[in-house]
Amino acid sequence: MIENRILSGMRPTGKLHIGHLSVLENWAKLQEDYKCFFMVADWHALTTAYDNTDEIKQNRRDMALDWLSVGIDPERSVIFVQSEVKQHAELHLLFSMNTPISWLERCPTYKDQVAQLGKEGKDINTYGFLGYPLLQAADILAYRADTVPVGEDQIPHLEMTREIARRFNHIYDTQVFPEPKAKLAKVSMLPGLDGRKMSKSYGNIIEIGETGKDLQGKVRQMTTDPNRIKKDDPGDPGVCVVNTYHGIYSEAGHVTELQEACRRGEIGCVQCKKALTTNLSQFMDPIRTKRDELSQNSMIDDILAEGAKKAALEAEKTMEIVRSAMKL
Ligand code: TRP
Ligand code: SF4
């Protein structure tokens, strides 16, 4: 086991939105205490989108740009694209030899998703999708990481990673793999523009690094207290998306003032939204600047190439032990 080593990843679904920020801020903080490997899980994206790969290159680049623009630091952490480190595939294949199918079939996320996506008309009764947790185990164990920051939904996959590690160590009489533990972080739920969960498919998102007119337009769309018709009607900030955002992106004193003015009917929603646009821009402008900088001169591509090299070096060290344990 390599202590204080983290691996985590996300499937590249394109540009991220500000609902993802709390996860990324958590990653950024972990860089202080851990050696971190952050992976763009493009092979994992194929498990559900194998027939729609036109955007995968753009998506993985966009996602990496978002990570770096909010403080994931390539000087301290290894940032790479999964498909550029072939050791993941080798380890996945070796795990597929000794993992009982029943473990995969009883994985709670598996049945749910097959049913869910089936309803949406998508057939994911594939070998690859069944093996999703094996590929994830390979991602983590290739680096012998002991800690994996993930959301609650990933707990069954982490549990299986531990079982796979234990079984491998047992069969080949080795200690190569640790049994990594999940590290759950509080994630704050940021509502979308319409008050529902923020999601690309609802069309209610603000992108990371969105600024200027685009951002202004998004704030304009936010739902306010529906009972407020005229601007001097007393309002209820408690049911207003704009107010939720003020709570995160504006100073506490300012927020209280706005809320009181709203309750007394002394501020119009247009003005309240203007104030939010100003504060949100202040937060977003430097992120945007950094994002633009990184996407010029193929800087991001160089960073990812360098990351893949470093990752492969580490993964290869593990694979040498693995092959030797298996007498390959
Ligand atoms: N399954 C994860 C998700 O959907 C993404 C992922 C792939 C991952 N490989 C990983 C997360 C390894 C942590 C560690 O969010
Ligand atoms: Fe929401 Fe502000 Fe309008 Fe009150 S004044 S309803 S807090 S936008």
Compact overview of the structure:
By secondary structure, this protein is of the alpha/beta class. The protein has 14 helices and five strands.
Oligomer: single chain
Kindly estimate the percentage of residues that lie in beta strands according to DSSP.
Answer: 5-15%
Largest sheet: 5 strands, parallel
CATH superfamily of the largest domain: HUPs
- The CATH topology name of the largest domain reads Rossmann fold
Attribute tags:
Rossmann fold, Tyrosyl-Transfer RNA Synthetase, binds iron/sulfur cluster, 2 domains, about 325 residues, five-stranded parallel β-sheet, 14 helices, elongated
Give an overview in words.
- This protein has two domains: 5-190 and 299-325, HUPs (Rossmann fold); 200-291, Tyrosyl-Transfer RNA Synthetase, CATH 1.10.240.
- The chain is built from 14 helices and five strands.
- It has helices at 21-30, 42-49, 56-69, 87-98, 101-105, 108-119, 127-130, 132-141, 155-171, 212-221, 241-249, 252-263, 269-295, 299-325, and strands spanning 2-10, 35-40, 78-81, 145-149, 181-183.
- Helix 1 links the parallel strand 1 (2-10) and strand 2.
- The longest helix has 27 residues, at 269-295.
- The two termini are 22 Å apart.
SSE order and pairing:
Elements (H helix, E strand, L loop, with lengths): L1 E9 L10 H10 L4 E6 L1 H8 L6 H14 L8 E4 L5 H12 L2 H5 L2 H12 L7 H4 L1 H10 L3 E5 L5 H17 L9 E3 L28 H10 L19 H9 L2 H12 L5 H27 L3 H27 L3
Parallel strand pairs: 1-2, 1-4, 2-3, 4-5
Helix pairs in contact: 3-13, 4-8, 4-14, 8-9, 10-13, 11-13
Bound molecules: tryptophan (TRP) and iron/sulfur cluster.
